[in-house]
């Protein structure tokens, strides 16, 4: 059961939802179904090219390991 991040297009609320099957996603703040799935930081960490962190430009600082 994956956890997805969403943003409500009506009120701007960001929220996470544990998805079980095909359920309608509604905003917990305003109840709108006008939501969009966000690209999570977890999903994008393996997609970057170049440095493996944002603290340095060479990818060799202590926070890159």
Give a description of the structure.
This protein has one helix spanning 41-44, and strands at residues 3-8, 14-18, 35-37. By secondary structure, the protein is mainly beta. Strands 2-1-3 form a 3-stranded antiparallel β-sheet, with no helix packed on it. The longest helix is centred in the middle third of the chain and has 4 residues, at 41-44. The protein is elongated. It starts with a strand and ends in a 21-residue tail after the last helix.
CATH topology of the domain at 1-43, anyone?
Rubrerythrin, domain 2
- SS-derived structural category: mainly beta
Helix content: under 10%
| Shape, per Cα inertia axes | elongated
| CATH-derived architecture of the domain at 1-43 | Single Sheet
The proportion of residues in beta strands is 15-25%
Keywords, please?
mainly beta; 6% helix; RPABC4/Spt4; Rubrerythrin, domain 2; elongated; 65 residues; single chain
Walk me through the topology.
Layout: E1 3-8, E2 14-18, E3 35-37, H1 41-44
Antiparallel strand pairs: 1-2, 1-3
Protein name: Zinc ribbon domain-containing protein
GO molecular function: 2 iron, 2 sulfur cluster binding
Domain Putative regulatory protein FmdB zinc ribbon: 1-40
């Amino acid at each position: 059961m994956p956890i997805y991040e969403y943003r409500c297009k009506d009120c701007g609320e960001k929220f996470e939802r544990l998805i079980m099957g095909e359920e309608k996603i509604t905003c917990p703040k305003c109840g709108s179904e006008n939501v969009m799935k966000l690209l999570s930081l977890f999903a994008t960490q393996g997609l970057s090219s170049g440095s493996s962190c944002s603290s340095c430009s060479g990818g060799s600082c202590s926070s890159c390991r």
